[in-house]
């Protein structure tokens, strides 16, 4: 995996070694290698997919030269599958590639078992009838299937899988969420995390108390017209493993073996009052000092020393972030302490004893930041209001966002008073605008912002939404919410 870590460094930061391992084990079949299919495979090959099989019966013609970067003028008259396969192989020689000169429709009609050997099939430019047949074949073989088609200035992508994750156990409960909150709060204690969507303020506060008492993580998500929000409620979120952009090796250059003190760092320090290079000019001089010691111009060890010289300049010892965590009162663990604070206490003891004032080598907790402070959502909803609110209401840059925040709360109050959301019925629009304005002013007053008002445009827009849950906004809010769920549950 060492080479892969260098080769796929950026994507490994996103999906990790397990995700990359799954990619490298995958076997992909492409049907029709025109521009749509070729571009699709190109991205997968660059990402390090395990193996590809290209199926196409056609030869390269002049038209292909104008829309397919995976063929060349010298490819004219040759099998397109062979040419595309060769070009793709050049992009990543770790990917196994082969081609089959066969019409995809022939395989679909006469040899359906052919597709069972693959992890996933990508079918491009197929007509509807063939798509339906291939879908049945792949579903029976439990093979994932992706359709892609471009047609003039339009196109589509379709995904067909038997189950997104057959390892996931799923069940449903036909019950109103508010009923569970009010009558069966212990119901939520069985879960690791609860995702609550489209709840009003009062229910959010109650559920927050329930989940905190049960030590269950909670995510609120709500979309309302063209706006929405995501809120996270956890007692404590400890980041177990961070992935810094620049990893500093545990070289202990500030405390080398006595023999190494005779080398360049010590030589520099003697001529600079014991200080290491700090300014840009000094760092440049330090690198030149290393180069002067080179016997030959291409000595690898000296070249590596120049490239790694910044590690000498880096601050040594325990970081301020780590020291703050070690000094936290939670590090004085008692029975019942969470795992993270037990590890912090162990690290603190190691530093004070075996470590001699230094943290342990690789395997410690790098760049870990944490806080024992947390606030209930109820604290936000109850006065006294935070001083920032009044300031942001009059700030041109933030007034619209804060206005929507106030109105999102006002519509909940409106609903509690009138048993409907503003703008849900066309005939009552004017009356709802007036009512919402009055409700918003009352809310601002309760928050301590006496005399503050919201613009007519914002109030009218909120009524125009009519509590609609628009797909584009719901998709965005759902995306943010799911990202937060991943971070919380994976401690990333």
Automatic annotation (TrEMBL):
Query: What taxonomic classification does the UniProt entry list for its organism?
Result: Eukaryota, Viridiplantae, Streptophyta, Embryophyta, Tracheophyta
Give the family from UniProt.
Belongs to the ubiquitin-activating E1 family. ULA1 subfamily.
Look up the domain of life of the source: Eukaryota
Q: Name one GO cellular component term.
A: cytoplasm
| Stored InterPro entries | APP-BP1 (IPR030667), ThiF/MoeB/HesA (IPR045886), ThiF_NAD_FAD-bd (IPR000594), Ubiquitin-activating_enz (IPR035985)
The annotated pathway is:
Protein modification; protein neddylation
Can you name one GO molecular function term for this protein? NEDD8 activating enzyme activity
Record has Zinc as a keyword = no
Q: Which Pfam families match?
A: ThiF
- Cell inner membrane keyword on record: no
Q: In what residue span(s) does the THIF-type NAD/FAD binding fold domain sit? A: 8-159
Q: Which PANTHER family match?
A: NEDD8-ACTIVATING ENZYME E1 REGULATORY SUBUNIT (PTHR10953:SF29), UBIQUITIN-ACTIVATING ENZYME E1 (PTHR10953)
Give the GO biological process terms: protein neddylation
Q: What is this protein called?
A: NEDD8-activating enzyme E1 regulatory subunit
What does the UniProt keyword field contain? Ubl conjugation pathway
Q: What does this protein do?
A: Regulatory subunit of the dimeric E1 enzyme. E1 activates RUB1/NEDD8 by first adenylating its C-terminal glycine residue with ATP, thereafter linking this residue to the side chain of the catalytic cysteine, yielding a RUB1-ECR1 thioester and free AMP. E1 finally transfers RUB1 to the catalytic cysteine of RCE1.
């Amino acid at each position: 995996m060492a080479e892969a870590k260098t080769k796929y460094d950026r994507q490994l930061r996103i999906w990790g070694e397990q995700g990359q391992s799954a990619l490298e084990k995958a076997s992909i079949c492409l049907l029709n290698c025109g521009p749509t299919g070729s571009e699709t495979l190109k991205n997968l090959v660059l990402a390090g997919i395990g193996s590809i099989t290209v199926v196409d019966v056609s030869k390269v013609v002049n038209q292909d030269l104008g829309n397919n970067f995976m063929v060349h003028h010298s490819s004219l008259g040759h099998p397109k599958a062979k040419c595309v396969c060769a070009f793709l192989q050049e992009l990543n020689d770790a990917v196994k590639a082969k081609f089959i000169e066969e019409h995809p429709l022939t395989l679909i009609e006469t040899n359906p078992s052919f597709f069972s050997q693959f992890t996933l099939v990508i079918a491009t430019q197929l007509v509807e009838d063939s798509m339906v047949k291939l879908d049945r074949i792949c579903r029976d073989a439990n093979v994932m299937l992706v359709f892609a088609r471009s047609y003039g200035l339009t196109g589509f992508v379709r995904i067909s899988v038997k189950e997104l994750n057959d390892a996931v156990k799923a069940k449903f409960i036909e019950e109103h969420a508010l009923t569970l909150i009010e009558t069966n709060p212990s119901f939520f204690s069985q879960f690791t995390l609860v995702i609550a969507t489209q709840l009003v303020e009062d229910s959010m506060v109650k559920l927050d108390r329930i989940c905190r008492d049960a030590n269950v993580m909670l995510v609120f998500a709500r979309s309302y017209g063209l706006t929405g929000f995501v809120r996270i409620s956890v007692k404590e979120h400890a980041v177990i493993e961070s992935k810094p952009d620049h990893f500093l090796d545990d070289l202990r250059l500030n405390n080398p073996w006595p023999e190494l003190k005779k080398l360049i760092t010590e030589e520099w320090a003697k001529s600079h009052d014991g200080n290491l290079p700090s300014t840009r000019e000094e760092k440049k001089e330090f690198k030149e000092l290393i180069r002067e010691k080179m016997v030959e111009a291409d000595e690898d060890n000296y070249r590596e020393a120049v490239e790694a010289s910044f590690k000498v300049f880096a601050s040594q010892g325990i970081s301020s972030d780590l020291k703050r965590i070690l000094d936290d009162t939670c590090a004085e663990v008692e029975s019942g302490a969470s795992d993270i604070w037990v590890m912090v206490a162990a690290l603190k003891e190691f530093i004070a004893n075996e470590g001699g004032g230094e943290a342990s080598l690789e395997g410690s907790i790098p760049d870990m930041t944490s806080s024992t402070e947390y606030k209930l959502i109820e604290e936000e909803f109850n006065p006294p209001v935070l001083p920032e609110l009044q300031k942001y209401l009059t700030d041109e840059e933030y007034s619209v966002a804060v206005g929507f925040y106030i109105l999102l709360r006002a519509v909940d109050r409106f609903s509690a008073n009138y048993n409907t959301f503003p703008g849900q019925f066309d005939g009552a629009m004017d009356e709802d605008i007036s009512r919402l304005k009055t409700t918003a002013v009352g809310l601002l007053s309760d928050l301590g912002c006496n005399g503050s008002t919201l613009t007519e445009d914002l109030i009218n827009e909120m009524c125009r939404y009519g509590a609609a849950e628009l797909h584009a906004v719901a998709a965005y809010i759902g995306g943010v919410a799911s990202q937060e769920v991943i971070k919380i549950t994976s401690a990333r």
